[in-house]
């Protein structure tokens, strides 16, 4: 194994090839900067720059006095979704209730027209809908684009502005898919704790002091906790972000179509790079994976360049279905009913738990969060023995584990909620 090169780029390429060919094994230490600089007869700053680039690319990690080592491969990350073959009552999936998804067979059939390269990438009807929907939620003059759901939108937005190694502020605990997105992109998540009112301003200030280049905020139905930004908290975050106009602000309002909570704007007028993401997947079903993206002109232009690599559009067949759902009165009435049902079921479970002396934070969405003082695994195992499948909170941790349980309430009935609350109390007791 021999590292070669005279420039930072050459040294970087040499080490990268050695790591990719496993001649440098995961966990193996690289030579100290001074030692390698002497071996290669180059300046120490040249080696330091190469090592910094290796860390930024996710090939190596710095470990303080232990120096720089080849990064260990990431362990498989947990994914959202249920386990259809499990005999347990599933409270872990995070899924909407299939009974409240629209019946697409009832949609009026529109004549098929093939779309060709060069045509408008977004249906005019969807552009008009998005402009009206987002009018009071973000700064004026937004460009309107589409992505394949909120997770795809966030990934594309980050890739449009950031490079591997950049730091991104996210809520702690954090949505599983956001953690995976940052990991795959080689970005460094910086966890910002949330409370009952959302992301904490003092913790966000600390993240900004670390040099984060982007902030991802969930204004309503935060996953996993369900917390929603209060008007006071949104104002505090907006004032804080106004002092950092270069930071990319992504507002992931994924539950907007079903939320029972008011929306409070976070994006400051001074922001130069911002985006508001609103998905239809929770209301229309995960298979109708489409999200509206309203953003500033520069971000919209960069996003379209990335979309152009995939023919610059979300399938117009999918767009046609979503557009028909948004203008069909029966489906809109059903979505309005679903909003009430989900809010009622969440409140029902929270009340049942409270009656047993088990407190959960207020919020909105398909899930409740039960904070725990330590590891959730013993409680999850105890509940499994009683027939319950729950999601342990540690997987939602950013820089350290998040101790708690996430309970999906979307499909619960009253009797099941009461039985779960009693079993939880027994296991906790």
Automatic annotation (TrEMBL):
A Pfam match: GntR
Domain HTH gntR-type: 5-73
Keyword Nucleotide-binding attributed: no
Gene3D superfamilies associated with the record: Type I PLP-dependent aspartate aminotransferase-like (Major domain), Winged helix-like DNA-binding domain superfamily/Winged helix DNA-binding domain
Region (Disordered): 74-105
Coiled-coil annotated residue ranges, if any: none
Keywords from the named record: DNA-binding, Pyridoxal phosphate, Transcription, Transcription regulation
CDD domains linked: AAT_like, WHTH_GntR
Superkingdom of the organism of origin: Bacteria
InterPro entries assigned to the protein according to its UniProt record, in alphabetical order: Aminotransferase_I/II_large (IPR004839), HTH_trans_reg/aminotransferase (IPR051446), PyrdxlP-dep_Trfase (IPR015424), PyrdxlP-dep_Trfase_major (IPR015421), Tscrpt_reg_HTH_GntR (IPR000524), WH-like_DNA-bd_sf (IPR036388), WH_DNA-bd_sf (IPR036390)
Entry's family note: In the C-terminal section; belongs to the class-I pyridoxal-phosphate-dependent aminotransferase family.
Protein name, per record: Putative 8-amino-7-oxononanoate synthase
Upper classification of the organism: Bacteria, Pseudomonadati, Pseudomonadota, Betaproteobacteria, Neisseriales
């Amino acid at each position: 194994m021999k590292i070669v090169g005279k420039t930072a780029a050459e040294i970087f390429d040499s080490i990268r090839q050695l790591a990719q060919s496993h001649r440098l094994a995961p966990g193996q230490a690289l030579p100290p900067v001074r030692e390698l600089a002497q071996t290669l007869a180059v300046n120490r700053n040249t080696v330091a720059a190469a090592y910094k680039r290796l860390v930024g690319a996710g090939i190596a990690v710095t470990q303080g006095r232990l120096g720089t080592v080849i990064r260990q491969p990431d362990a498989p990350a947990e994914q959202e979704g249920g386990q259809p073959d499990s005999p347990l009552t599933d409270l872990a999936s995070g899924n909407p209730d299939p009974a409240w998804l629209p019946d697409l067979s009832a949609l009026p059939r529109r004549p098929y027209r093939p779309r060709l390269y060069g045509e408008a990438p977004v249906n005019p009807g969807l552009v008009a809908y998005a402009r009206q929907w987002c009018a009071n939620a973000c700064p004026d003059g937004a460009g309107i684009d589409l992505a394949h759901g909120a997770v795809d939108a966030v990934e594309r937005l980050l890739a449009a502005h950031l490079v591997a190694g950049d730091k991104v502020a996210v809520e702690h605990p954090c949505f599983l898919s956001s953690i995976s997105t940052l990991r795959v992109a080689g970005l460094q998540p910086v966890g910002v704790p949330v409370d009952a009112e959302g992301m904490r301003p003092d913790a966000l200030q600390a993240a900004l002091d670390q040099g984060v280049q982007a902030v991802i905020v969930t204004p309503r139905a935060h996953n996993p906790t369900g917390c929603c930004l209060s008007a006071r908290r949104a104002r505090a975050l907006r004032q804080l972000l106004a002092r950092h106009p270069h930071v990319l602000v992504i507002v992931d309002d994924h539950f907007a179509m079903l939320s029972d909570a008011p929306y409070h704007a976070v994006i400051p007028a001074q922001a130069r790079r911002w985006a508001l993401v609103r998905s239809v997947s929770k209301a229309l079903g995960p298979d109708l994976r489409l999200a509206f993206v309203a953003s500033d002109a520069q971000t919209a232009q960069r996003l379209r360049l990335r979309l152009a690599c995939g023919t610059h559009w979300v399938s117009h067949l999918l767009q046609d279905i979503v557009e028909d759902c948004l203008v069909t009165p029966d489906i809109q009435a059903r979505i309005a009913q679903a909003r009430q049902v989900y809010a009622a079921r969440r409140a029902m479970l929270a009340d049942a738990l409270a009656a047993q002396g088990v407190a959960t934070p207020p919020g909105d969405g398909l899930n409740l969060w039960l904070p725990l003082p330590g590891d959730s695994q013993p409680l999850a195992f105890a509940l499994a023995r009683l027939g319950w499948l729950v999601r342990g909170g540690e997987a939602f941790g950013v820089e350290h584990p998040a101790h708690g349980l996430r309970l999906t309430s979307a499909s619960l009935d009253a009797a099941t909620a009461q039985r779960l609350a009693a079993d939880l109390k027994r296991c906790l007791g």
